[in-house]
Structures
1.
Amino acid sequence: MDMKGRKILITGAAGFIGSHLADRLAGENDLVLVDDFSIGSMDNLAQLENRSGVQIVKADVTDRERMMDLCQGVEALFHLAISCLRTSLNQPVLSHDINAGGTLSVCMAAFDRGVRRFIYVSSSEIYGTALAAPMSEDHPCHPTTVYGASKLAGELYALAYHRTYGMPVSVVRPFNTYGPREPYAGSRAEVIPRFILQLAAGEQPVIYGDGLQTRDFTFVEETVEGIVRAAECDALVGDVVNVAYGQEVSILQIAEILAELMGHSDRGVKRAEPRPGDVRRHFADIGRARALFGFAPQIGIRTGIGRTLEWFESSGIASRAEPRASGLPNW
Ligand SMILES: NC(=O)c1ccc[n+]([C@@H]2O[C@H](COP(=O)([O-])OP(=O)(O)OC[C@H]3O[C@@H](n4cnc5c(N)ncnc54)[C@H](O)[C@@H]3O)[C@@H](O)[C@H]2O)c1
């Protein structure tokens, strides 16, 4: 099913990945961009605000009646709205309500309105730490956090709607995604933006644990491309697919690359207590995405980090960084 000339609804559209997905689909489609703006920001959607065919709606995905109204006439729905991993460490019920309950509510609305393609954007966190690597879609699902468990519940609800009612559901499991607009403040601040701000403020990057934990970092434009191609792939309906770059990089390596790019290689790093439930190892097997829809990411970690840094510098966010308690745990 081509994602062209469609009416498409995106939940979590004012967030990091959702706003890039909206950019990618705008122009060729009519978009209903849904977000409760609890975390997401209008800044992320400013470029789309006055574009014809784009409707920006403040709504809560757990509000089933509202979602029912919004799904009227929608042909494809990308469900991304979440409460994030770090929030789940202190507010597990919120995580459950939004990530699992919200997904069920969106499934019910989409099914009721006859949505023709439902794309559940899941997460590599559903796997837990790698028992074998690279991790294919058949890797056991042993999430370590309530966030991971709630994302897995969302997957299972969406797939249940496929198995029981025949709703055309596809599940995409992105691995860690980074790039412009990545959250840098409060509990949503991710590792790459935090390191950028710490280095820009004259501090050492703060690493929780030994820094040897790994992730498969994927540049946001490539994650979005994978999500769109997965949505277009008829053979994926009823199934799941990994979307990642396909390379294992440690948190320590990230700190080193950034320090070098910012001219602070001699600064070293500061170590702190590990984050509870932190996954030790993530490294994706992307063979299924390659075989099904020719997914072939090109943006390696140094290039991607360089582009991310450029955005944090040109947006003025890096130069406003202040030496303060930026290394304190944000969960
Ligand atoms: N960022 C990553 O590295 C990554 C990796 C794997 C998977 N994912 C998945 O991608 C999706 C998007 O992640 P992101 O990093 O862009 O997150 P994000 O926090 O930037 O975006 C989530 C958006 O959901 C909105 N939201 C929260 N609760 C809501 C509610 N009740 N109703 C409506 N909107 C609500 C927030 O305001 C926010 O704009 C999520 O499903 C996440 O699990 C992200």
2.
Amino acid sequence: MAKLEVKNLHVSVEDTMILKGINLTINEGEIHALIGPNGHGKSTLLLAIMGHPSYKIEEGTIIYDGVEFNDLSVDNRSKAGVFLAMQNPLEINGVTNMDFFKGIINAHRETPIGLYEFIKDLEKNSKEVGFNLDLASRYLNEGFSGGERKRNELLQMKLLKPKLALLDEIDSGLDVDGLEMVASTISSMMDDKKLSALIVSHYVKLYEQVKPTFVHVIIDGKVALSGDYSLLEKVNKQGYGWIEKELAIKLTKAKQSRPSSAGLCLNKVIKDEENSN
Ligand SMILES: Nc1ncnc2c1ncn2[C@@H]1O[C@H](COP(=O)(O)OP(=O)(O)O)[C@@H](O)[C@H]1O
Ligand SMILES: [Mg+2]
């Protein structure tokens, strides 16, 4: 059973402690939702699990499938079956999408994939995520719209077939059809119960469709609350203000929060946060 165990995780970025003791366990086949006001550490947690070099583990451990990740390289984490769809996918000038896809697939195989099999796989999966294949010959994400970048991330996930998907606002910038597609892609990959996922989103619509079993609210670098789907419904209706009162914690930390998608529903949260700033 491939299980992710995050224990007492403290992570700093540029000498500022962002995560302050995260505990989280994701068993095989489970979907967890990660929510919380902007700037409180959701992306930091996902990036730290994947091994982004700017996110320094100061204390605690990340263990996946029995292997300690703390000092493991990003490519070995990927080979262990973990995939991160980034909130802000990077542009890489000079590397075509096509070469990138082939490179990532081959990095996960003993022998290189044959050209015919690769093209067939790429065509099929591109179609399923509504990714325009013409974009495959362009440089990675260069000049792509927000939605195209998200579809590209999803396409990479389908090509790599990870065991644990970390999805950071994969649905932002997508229209209603795009949202449907994201939800059905995740659901179909979950079908065999082998995929686990940690999903960050501001859109309750996505959660309605993929139905996470566990929901965690991150506030000021800690999991302030965990619960089942009803927690998501409560936040959707009431925002995060009640958590502030109930747990006597401050939500106004997010002064440096970077731009993020304002969702259809959980956006009430963002407004609450802005009002209190
Ligand atoms: N690369 C970085 N450089 C500087 N500060 C960062 C960086 N990444 C995150 N932070 C800071 O860490 C905090 C948490 O950010 P983030 O994890 O992106 O929040 P969320 O995803 O919950 O909106 C914010 O204050 C943000 O400005
Ligand atoms: Mg984020």
3.
Amino acid sequence: MSLASMAERLTRRTWTDEIVDAYVGPFVSAHLAHAVAASVREDAASGGAVTAILVALLDADRVDGALVCVSAIEDGRVRARYRIATTRNELLAARGSTYVLGAFVAEALPLIEAFEGRLAVVGLPCELTALARHTGLAEKVAVRIALFCGHATTSELVDHTTARLTQRANGAKLTSFRFRIGHWRGMTRAGFDDGTVIEQPFSAYGLYQNLYYFAAKKCMFCGDHFGYDSDLSAGDIWSAKYKSDPIKHTALIVKTQAGADAIALAEQRGECEVVRVDIGEVLDGQRRIAPFHYNVSARAQAGVGLGLKIPDRVGAHVRWHERAAARIALQDFLATQSPEGAAAVLRTDRRVLKLKLLLLKGLESLS
Ligand SMILES: Cc1cc2nc3c(=O)[nH]c(=O)nc-3n(C[C@H](O)[C@H](O)[C@H](O)COP(=O)(O)OP(=O)(O)OC[C@H]3O[C@@H](n4cnc5c(N)ncnc54)[C@H](O)[C@@H]3O)c2cc1C
């Protein structure tokens, strides 16, 4: 048995109906899925199931377009930009996760409003809540797909990452960027105008992200990991037993009939392979992050001593290790709020940060 499997066994959690209801909300079923075509899976964030479902919806004329988000390059910088994809190629171009926060309300909602036709919308949980609050768009939106979301980061972290990659490419101009592709935690890939392609482990970015450095402020206040306001939600499955599986999967949670119809269609059309699993299997794959994310109460309590006022709308029971983990996350978030603080964090020996991450993961794992 691997060390990771042993650690999982020791920190096993019980997912009671009450916990599932709190974290996920009402749901119909849970699944593991992947795009049937390897060409769709490559460059996808997980198993490419989200893209495969969008392709099926578009090809079957269930929707006229899909609101997606791309990692756009603007003046050598990576920014989250929204597009309405109306062709298979545009959907493929939008594969992958864009971890830098976009301006969904200011940029995506007007696109949805202006579009004539029916849409599928992919968004982060908070973005789908913003969509739900925006009256008058419900009729236009046939299906809402939420991405499981730990949190998003600010542009400073990706600017730091691309500046270093540009240096390694001897100053060539950045032309393409994928935050995370490939198996398990994956690789970051940057392309340059002289043909140079640089890949580095996603952990170069993920180490800071997982420690909540450069976290977007609103994420500190949010407890919605799985997308309460979605028809279908999609994420990774981080259980050790899937590490050696040659095909990476997307975990799916069906919330409504529209969500169930969307995956049934993708299956019928041969775009997606879907296997039903117990919801506990999906939650096992999020065993640390989902409880941490949901527990806004822990951050509200830890925030008091740090001068951060976080409203507690959850009223969850907070144990010492949850408060300690929340304190680390908030301290790290605060540390990167000023340019001087951010520079100091980026100068810190990565071995020290890795030890800190181990501590945070340890605290998150206690149940
Ligand atoms: C900020 C962020 C945080 C995440 N946190 C977690 C987490 O903690 N745990 C977890 O299991 N999974 C998380 N995910 C989801 C995960 O990275 C994958 O997106 C998900 O597993 C779907 O994979 P896929 O291969 O099926 O999707 P793909 O087939 O690659 O399609 C992804 C779709 O999502 C759209 N998209 C990408 N980024 C954004 C964005 N920022 N806003 C709106 N739409 C977007 C793309 O345009 C594309 O249509 C996160 C994603 C993001 C963007």
4.
Amino acid sequence: MLAVTVQGGQTAVQVPLPERKRGEALVRVKRVGICGTDLAMFDGYTDHTGVIGHEFAGVVEEADNDAWIGKRVTSSINFTPSDYPFDWKTAKHHPRRTALGIRGRDGTMAEYAVIPEDALIELPASVSDASGATVEPLAAAMDAVDRLPPGVGGDILVVGDGRIAQLVGRVLQQRHHRWAIVGRNRMKLSLAKRAGGRGEEEANIHKGKRFSRVIEATGSPEGIRLALNAVAPTGTVVLKSTLSEEVQLDLSRVVVHEIRLIGSRCGDLEKALEAMARGKIEVTDMITAVYPLARAAEAFEHARRPDAVKVQLEP
Ligand SMILES: [Zn+2]
């Protein structure tokens, strides 16, 4: 089958069909998104060498539990070892965890993928394959918003205008927060404004404008520094970027102004899917382009362009 592997580079290569073990389902992948983590995989973000991809929608073709067969699904991406009961929250930090297409387990940027049945989540008919492949990053965006302290006034600042930043904005909008977004791409900023955000000038932050609550989702060291600059004394910054390199920061500002830094990685997919299924969060207007898997090289090139938001592959 065709698949994108770290070692094969950013093109689809022929690999053997994945082997299904006990308790696992064989899923025919219908849609899979390219995210910042996938791009970082080629820069050595983890030591995974196999198939990448973790934001997907597909159909179960084989499973131990017959009830799954024929169902449209997505899944959690962190898995506990098979001798542990599955729970996405504990899986996230388990020392022997595997992560779909990221760490110790082949991913879904392929014609077929093998997924632990416990981690499968059925997609309702109201959620398309394109949206289904966006449930995982939406859950991650929700987790970032969930970590903000409640009862603090003023606009929430989203730093960055890319894939995750756009989803964070939609979650804030769904929850009736007032939010501002700082970014550098005019097209992406207008997408965020259409979703209900207010554009903030980067120059205003350099001139001293501060926010009590900041979510950083730029994927760049520079963005993290801007977020630290933008936060008000005693404020909170939620960090969402996964970077393959180390970042140099002025931490004395964190100490002197008693700032809280909170990391956030993955979220609750069931909760994200529920918001999507009830039509409360729309994501398909964020999809910039869809490529067949065989044209993965072009898709990756497109995903790296400044004006691209979400690029997806269709095996
Ligand atoms: Zn992702």
